[in-house]
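tool=predict chain=A
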Amino acid sequence: MSEFKDRLKAFRKALGLKQREVAERLGCKTGTIGDWESGGGLPGDARIYQLCKEFNVRREWLEHGEGEMFEPESKPKSDQETLEDAALALFNRLDATAQEAVMNVLMRLLNEAREKYRAKTKPEEPGKNASATEPILVAEKRKGDDFTA
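tool=predict ok
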């Protein structure tokens, strides 16, 4: 049975990709892919998950050589899913300081939206007027949390 390094190279070749292209899509260095393919190390669980998700590779096959190489084809992604994937990929390429800054902005916007929602609904009892589409707010009102960043 082949090793991880051989399976990694096999799926990359099956997709017609160069190590550089795989590295770019994962947000890592080309040398990292080369190291993995030469047996100089193994990726961690997060990278294996990312490899499988990004390239539609079955984890059981990649890690153990079991079953088919690729997941069965699924329905095409919606525009929203494509946008979310692109946003997540951009976020993952940021350094830790920039990621923290983005998260701070997002938390501020989320808190502002919650305040607007509270001002609009003003329930008499925690969760009384909250809709089923606002489970976070219902839980928040029950706990009495203020969700400050």
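The domain at 4-64 is CATH 1.10.260.40 (434 Repressor (Amino-terminal Domain)). DSSP finds eight helices and no strands in the chain.
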